[in-house]
Amino acid sequence: MLSPSTTGLHCLFLMISACCQTQGSNFYPLSYVIDSTLGHESFYPEMQRQKRNMFIIDLPLPEYMVDIEVSLQDSSYLQPIKDYFKNINLPINISNAQTTVSNISITTVCLPSGENSSCCFCENGHAWPSTVCSDVMPCPPASLEPALPCGYKQKMPFYGPYCEPQTEESCGVGEPIVMNMSVRLDSDFQDDLKDPSSVLFQKYKADLEKAFNASYRCLPGFVSATVTGFRPGSVFVNYRVTTGAASFTQLGDSNRAVQHFLDPSYQLNQFTFTRVITNETNFTVKPSNIFEGDAVRLTCEINSTFTNVTWYHFDQAISTGSQYSIETVLATRRSILKITNVTLKDSGSYSCVFIKSSPYHTEIHNATETVSVFPLQVTPNFEDIDVTCNSPEAQAKGLLLSCCIDRHVTSLKVSWKVNGTINITGESKLNGNCTEYQLNINESLCPPEKSGSVTTYTCELETGHGARRARSIGVTYLRKAHITVSSTNTTVSEGHGFNVTCKSDVSNYDSISWKIQSGNDTKRVDCNKCIKNYSFPAMSVLTVKSASQVWRGTFICTFSQQNLDSSANVTIEVVSLPLKKNILIDPIATLIRCQVPHALQCCIPANTVRNYTVTFWVQQNEYQVVKKKKGDLLCYMYNHTHKECNKDEEFVAYCKFINRIGEGVDSEHIRLQLIPEKKISCSDSLGIGREGDKLIKPCSDVKKPKGFTRGNVTYQCTNREWIAVKNCCLTGPINDLLGGAESLVNSPEAKTELPSYLAQLQEQTRKELTTINNSSANIGAVVTILDMVSSIPAEAEELTMQNFLSTVDLIVDDSTTGAWDALNKEETQQSSLLLQSVENFSQNLQPVNNTIPSVSANTVHLQGTVVKENNNIDYNKDFRSTKNLTVSVLISGTEIQTLTQNSTIISVMYSKLGHILPQDTSEKVNGLLITTTLSSIRRQNFEVNMTFAKQNLSLKMPRCVFWNFTLKNHRGNWDDSGCTTTESGDNVSCSCNHLTSFSILMSPDGSSSEPTVEDYISYIGLAISIVSLVVCIIIESLVWKYVTNNTTSYMRHICILNIATSLLIADVWFIVTASITDQKQQMSRDICIMATFFIHFFYLCVLFWMLTLGLILFYRLVFILHNTSKTAQKAVAFCLGYVCPFVIAVTTIAVTLPKQSYTRNDRCWLNWDDSKALLAFIIPALLIVATNLFIAAVVIIKILRPTIGDRSSGQERKYLFQIGKSVAILTPLLGLTWGFGLATAIQHSHRAFHILFSALNAFQGLFILVSGTLWDKKIQEALLKRNSSSKWSSQQSKSSSLILVTPMLAMSYPFSRTFNNLCGKTGKYRVSSSEPSTSSTENTSKAYSLLN
């Protein structure tokens, strides 16, 4: 073994054996040590050549290579030894070994290098074997001179392998590789380093290349190191090293040596050497064609070890998650990235980065591949398609469905799924990139009730790598419907109605339309009110109430479903027949004389005459007529002679028109009155009559085109002359407009014709304004027209709305006030009808382009809006009249959200219409009138807020009201139900829970009239009664246990106590509500309803308890021998006293409250004008009063029953006194004072009855206290002796002993005795002490005790 200071020399001897070959022997390197004395040799014993047995054969001489290691103790001998071996003469024959040394080469020289290591060099022409190329490490540069060849560290002892003759496979020989590397200089980057021509760049490049070449020169096969550039980030040096295959460790050692050859000012960071290898990674992607939804596998594999690997998508590092998973196997030097359910976003470059690092070297293997993800586009041949499943073509050919993709996929998998109520299937096949599905359509699989059903066919395509796409095709299976149409009459007369019914076996229709074809003309029936559609069964009924010639023709009914129409038709013939309203009768009402002919006639326009059969009917007798043409009229005349002259009588006559199909129409009746001849005062061409009689004539004028107009003229016989007292004739244009409106509303094209008619109506009304102003009949006719046309839905075109509102404005002008006053005096409903027509018109408006235009017509202004989806914006509209009066309407967005989409909210302001509505003299309309309507069905409560400006600031007590069309027999009246009022300066705010027409009513200053005598009596009497009833209840509670010692007395005091309590509660409610009403203070509508209910209920309780008291008295008087338990009597009493009133009160409020007619408008009491709710109090009260009056009569009769023997005059006076006293007791207790209410109900009754009724009932509480409590002797005694228990006990004992023989609770003993005498129980008959007699006496006495 060599010592550390020993220099080794490795020699290669080529020995040639001359005559033999050694078999089974090994040659080892010979360790030959040459000491300081040259020429002395020594061999290690273990390396000595051994003798072997040898045999000689005649073969070619073998050659052997022998490695000999020569160790020198002194390195100075190294060169002489090398020279010695170079200069030695060869060949050398070794005789004793029969060997020839043919060549000696020095291959490896090792110099000492630290403990147990040396630095070995290969001689020229020799190189290290490739097997150790990656293991040899350069010697530290400090121990090497730059000029010396590179040595490599070897451990000692060194047993090889040694350098070998250089070949193509030797270490460092062969094609060099280029390594791209970088290192960082910890200095600031300067811009000159970007310029290769700059001095700084050149200096850095030269210095760094010198250092790099010096440090890397010992790498196997090193060629050069070249700086390629600099980049910022401190200073990064990019350089390229061209060398042989160097190992990771070799590069690290070389990197560490760089700093020894570089000036320290460069501040090289020796830990930042990095090599990036881009061409040594095997990167594979599967599958090659990637579609959305596929699972993708990316694999990177390198041929060297690594410490970690990182995957990147673009520059973003990938971490393991739900979509990504990374599998790295160090043993196989492989990393796999798996991506599931890829999307288009996953396209792009993917990089795998393998990193191996040591302190002085980092090696990065980097590979990048671009992944393209393609959308898997599936295109069906249909999105949705309709199929008529019972059509011959569909059943013959079926339907072909297909789905195609835009790329070829080798492993495409296809499936079809069917989902729907109609299960029609087919056959699937693959055709290239398409899958086809041929449907087999069968009518039996498509029943009528399922027509319109959608079956979804879903094609699902899968690539085989996870990508899956599905597309659905909706097939709507329609069935052509079987339509049947029928009519009640195929031939119908004008003015008569008929129905056409259209039925379909397919119920799932989308729409139904009707058309009428007459000749070449076809018109659509656009009449919402005359068509009614049904779903189950599928049916449409067209109802024509009054046929005209426009309805004749072929009716075509069409059921539409999707784009499939199914139709049927029926022909209707309309036969002419005069309409009743178009038959002129003359006279309308007249007087006739007996035995004198009187001309009666019926006329129709001559141009409407057909082959009619006309007769006159008088008193159910038929008479023939004479036909005569008068101008444009054709009249049918009959001279009637009345032959029965016994008495004055009234009867009617009429004419009957019958057409060719036997259907007829009767004219209006002609009223005839027979009068004696001697009484005739007026007699001329108009007719005859007595003074003051009236006759009515039609509005006929043969000179006019139609010969007559609607209406009549009333004449009165005055001073032997007929004077026209009332003219209700319409002018010709207005009459034509009225007829046109009647035709329009009955027209199949009413909606289409409405705009042109409204334009005509507005124009003619303006032209006839002068005659309209002076004629209530004309105004009434125009209102009727507006009411009729308002029922027709109109499109919200500005011109259409303008014409309607302008007509309204014209007829409410100040010039028409007189005509309106006349109409209101006649108690017509025209003013209310006008308001109703505007409401209907606005409610039926249909938006155009989803808007409602704002339209103004002088005194009428309309604004509105359309409710949009998810609309929560407040509805807020402001209006201003020409006189600067204002009103605003506010509906919150919360309320609007409850409405259906595309419904409308429309408000209409009127500045004059409110003043022509009927109103009380005590309150005036003191603001604008505003109408707000909804087109959609709304919930019961819908909050709307309005603010009115006062017109007359001197008026007081504002009240928010709405026009209730149902009040006053549908004439309408103001009502404040559901509204609350808030006054604020010159404005009044109203909040109501419903919609209609609103305004404010106010009273003149000091509007409440002076209190009447009845008012004073009521307030004083009720106050005294309330106090009296409280006293009565207190007294009853104090003496209760003393005076209720038997059943009769107990029941009497039960009745009195409940009467007092109920009357007290009722009086308190009454006086509170009456005072609030009289003071004109506002009261909540709900509180008013509650107060009315309790007043009604408790007054009924008072009356029914009075009835109970009367019935108990009657029971004790009549059923003397019958006795009922106290419990039974009490149960009956309470049921009668409270249950019956409760049932009546609840029934009343349940019936009338939904109709807003429970209470009166001016006070909190039961309504009379509208619902007659007051009868729910009047009828029970009168029945109870009548019953108790009968009971009181029975008591009087009992008192007046004669006893045996004559009565003295003193006794007569005593009985009269008893009768008077009994009446005084019974009248208040039995409620007989309520009977005086009958007198007040009589119209124009004397005021004295009203005062008497008020006094008797106001002081009823006082009367009950006096007659029912204070007048009772037993109560008096109980109060006087209540504190003396001993005296009371004595009195109680005494009273109890008299129960069986004297009337209990009598007002005085003599009075009671007299009662017994009058009832047959005087001293003339001895009272038996037997039990039956005692019982009878007891019951009778108990009956009379009720009077106390």
UniProtKB/TrEMBL annotation:
Keyword line: Cell membrane, Disulfide bond, Glycoprotein, Membrane, Signal, Transmembrane, Transmembrane helix
Residue ranges occupied by any G-protein coupled receptors family 2 profile domain in the UniProt entry: 1014-1272
Pfam families: 7tm_2, ADGRF3_N, GAIN, GPS, Ig_3, SEA
Gene Ontology terms for molecular function: G protein-coupled receptor activity
Membrane topology field: Multi-pass membrane protein
Highest taxon of the lineage: Eukaryota
Position of the signal peptide: 1-24
Keyword Ribosomal protein: no
Domain Ig-like: 264-372, 380-476, 481-571
GO CC annotation: apical part of cell; cell surface; cytoplasmic vesicle; plasma membrane
Region entry Disordered, spans: 1325-1348
Subcellular location: Cell membrane
Domain GAIN-B, residue spans: 851-1008
Domain SEA: 173-297
GO biological process, one term: erythrocyte development
Residue stretches spanning the membrane: 1016-1043, 1055-1077, 1097-1119, 1131-1153, 1173-1201, 1222-1242, 1248-1271
Chain intervals with Low complexity compositional bias: 1328-1341
InterPro entries for the chain: ADGRF3/5_N (IPR057400), Adhesion_GPCR (IPR051587), AGRL2-4_GAIN_subdom_A (IPR032471), GAIN_B (IPR057244), GAIN_dom_sf (IPR046338), GPCR_2-like_7TM (IPR017981), GPCR_2_Ig-hepta-like_rcpt (IPR008078), GPCR_2_secretin-like (IPR000832)
Similarity annotation: Belongs to the G-protein coupled receptor 2 family. Adhesion G-protein coupled receptor (ADGR) subfamily.
The name this protein goes by in its record: Adhesion G protein-coupled receptor F5
Lineage: Eukaryota, Metazoa, Chordata, Craniata, Vertebrata
